[in-house]
Specification:
The protein is of the alpha+beta class. Helix 3 crosses helix 4.
Length: 419
Amino acid sequence: MKLIRIMQNDDFTSHFRIPTELSLWLWMALGLWATAKAQEPTNLATTTLTIRSDFPGGNIIVEKIEDNVVKLRQDERDTARFWFYWCFKIQGAEGRRVRFDFTQGNVFGNRGPAVSNDDGQSWNWLGLDACDGDSFSYSFAATERSVLFAFAVPYTEANLDEFLKRHEKHPAMLRQELVRSANRRLVELVRSGRIDGHARHRVLLTARQHACESIANFVLEGIWESVLEDSELGRWICEHVEILSVPFIDKDGVEAGDQGKMRQPYDHWLDYQADSRYPESRAILYLIESYAKLQPIDVALDIHCPYIRDSRIFFALGSNRTIAASTTRFCRLLEQHQQGSLTYHLEDNLLFGFKWNVPETYAGRRSFWQWAETLPGIRAVATLEVPYASVGGSTVTPEAARKLGSDLAIALRAFLETD
């Protein structure tokens, strides 16, 4: 039997003698193995999953990762009771189906988790079919290297910057500094409409008293867009109305990904009195009370999101019966003029003295609406609650929330035109 040498001194220190027929078979097998290995997809089950929350609005605590199961929970931080906001990014899951088990209860809204596979440029709802009790599952495509999941569609300073940059040359919009937050972040005051000091009417709009309530900002964008567009409505507002907006009351909480609701010892919403704890509420008190001495604020709307799966748009009204009656007239105008898919019904309003809108809720503090009702000449004051995911059978999306904002702008005009 003929013998051949298949390795030389430069390859290994010893020589092997193998039958010719066997050596040919080994070379063929090695070639097939190498070809198959080169064609294997990367980042399969052997790849390490990476879960991150180190970005604006991020919030998650990972307890354990085992195979394709992740045990995790929302970070409640200084919120005194169960709350449900979370937002995280996962990398290295290409080609897998991963289950996410939340260990502190059900934290999904009416449409399940929100998901983005383009780094937050667009979002979709996974739907409740993806959920099983306190868990949800997701099958990652081979191309999905980085995916964001969240309780609801987030909105942070980067989103506001993008909006304002698109309109930075518009003469009817101006970004100013209201104050610096406790962590020295810029807290924006956005003035829109007639901003030359000669407006006949003034409106105050606020959002994110509770950091997690992100849908409120898309509603604000819809109001601003109505002001800035070249339309009969936009022109009327720019001639008659100045709108003062504070899009992030709890700016630090928004960027840090806090719950913000029931923050200890009390949250921003309950901080509108002489001994204010937070720079933002102190600055609003000073600014608006100074404005009101020169010309009354006509309307103050504080935009929020309700509890986890509430599916009604509603206004929580205050204790001053005259102002509440005037605010109800504004609400009726909204009901009459609305055009968007997120439908508001006047009968859903929450009057003072019912459910959570009772004196015990305020625990000796003064809320935004309680302070706003004291402003001289104020005509309408309310806490507007816009759901996170569903209004009736309609889906909440950024565009649908903006359309609700447009409807609010129409109602504001109708209200202000009738003195």
